[in-house]
Design brief:
CATH architecture of the largest domain: Alpha-Beta Complex
CATH superfamily of the largest domain: Spore Coat Polysaccharide Biosynthesis Protein SpsA, Chain A
Strand content: 25-35%
Radius of gyration: 21 Å
Distance between the termini: 60 Å
């Protein structure tokens, strides 16, 4: 088995935080988002990370202190309209490297609270390692389910945790979801299905979730498993703050090199290395590294590196790296 992580999207919904930074390298509760994936993958699995030319140097720097069996695959795209698409990137890797192993596929902007080894064990359980398997999640809200692929199966079975379940259909971002069970960015594809992925990608290079629906419609058996632990698709400002809150709770996570004086931190707050705060109030906000904040009220904000804020009130904002805002 080999692991393949998609990490090449330009993540425009999180600009300016991801304008010059790969979303999987965005700090989440004190470390890059992708680290949660890497630390969860069994050591014996070789990992390929697919990214684009814009983020190549950033990933190479990140990789220096990581495990040895990680390979970077660079897609030479510098704009979104130059990309080959998520499924297209998978297909290129499969064909150019003559991959003939089962593939553990992950999207690099997802956070998974369960242990990947448990998922891998489900794949081999009961001799069913010839069937595609993916992780689903009960989002418990049909309005939110409209943003995802909605999984359908027989009756009430579709909400049983920690059990392999046969999928019947997948609704792609439906206007009227029939379930609150949604697909996540975690799949295992048996090696015999890889040519089918490559063929489907020719006409649908940007439709990763669509390959599951295609398999089901062509009678290729697909199973799923639901874990009860947290899952986040971190594709927006709100999702980023929600994931932060889930990881640290109602607490203040402050780097040991940060300085805080006469400052009140409410809710879930993260303060990065070498940042300095004085005479301020923070609520449910994330402050990156080397920031200086004086006499401010900040609520539900994400402040990038090297920002300077003085005598201001800020709510519901993401600030670009190096921003200076002062009020006399």
């Amino acid at each position: 088995m080999q692991c393949f992580i998609l990490a090449g999207g330009f993540a425009t919904r999180l600009w300016p935080l991801t304008e010059k930074r790969a979303k999987p390298l965005l700090p989440l509760a004190g470390k890059p988002m992708i680290d949660y994936l890497i630390e969860n993958i069994p050591e014996n699995l070789p990992i390929t990370i697919s990214t684009n030319a814009v983020f190549q140097k950033e990933f190479e720097e990140w990789k220096k202190n990581k495990r040895k069996n990680i390979t970077l695959l660079i897609e030479y795209a510098e704009r979104d309209d130059q990309k080959v698409g998520a499924l297209g990137a998978v297909a290129q890797w499969l064909t150019h490297n003559n991959i003939n192993d089962d593939v553990f596929l992950l999207t690099g902007d997802n956070y998974f609270g369960f242990k990947f080894q448990e998922f891998l064990d489900f794949f081999f359980k009961e001799g069913k390692n010839d069937r595609t398997l993916f992780v689903a999640h009960d989002i418990k809200d049909k309005e939110k389910a409209k943003q995802f692929g909605v999984v359908l199966s027989d009756g009430m079975k579709n909400k049983i945790f920690n059990q392999r379940i046969l999928a019947k259909d997948l609704q792609e971002k439906p206007l009227m979801p029939l379930s609150t069970i949604v697909s996540t960015g975690c799949y295992i594809f048996p090696k015999h299905t890889l040519p089918k992925i490559v063929a489907f990608a020719e006409g649908h290079p940007d439709n990763l979730g669509g390959v599951i629906a295609h398999f089901l419609h062509t009678k290729e058996p697909v199973d799923y498993v639901i874990f009860n632990e947290s899952w986040f698709d971190i594709g927006s400002f709100d999702a980023y703050l929600e994931a932060t809150k889930a990881l640290i709770g109602n607490a203040n996570q402050c780097h040991e090199t940060a300085t805080i004086k006469q400052t009140l931190c409410n809710g879930s707050t993260v303060i990065g290395a070498h940042s300095s705060l004085e005479g301020s109030t923070l609520t449910d906000s994330v402050i990156f590294e080397h920031c200086s904040i004086r006499n401010c009220i900040i609520e539900r904000c994400v402040i990038d590196n090297h920002c300077t804020l003085e005598n201001i009130e800020l709510r519901g904002q993401m600030l670009r790296e190096g921003t200076t805002l002062r009020r006399s």
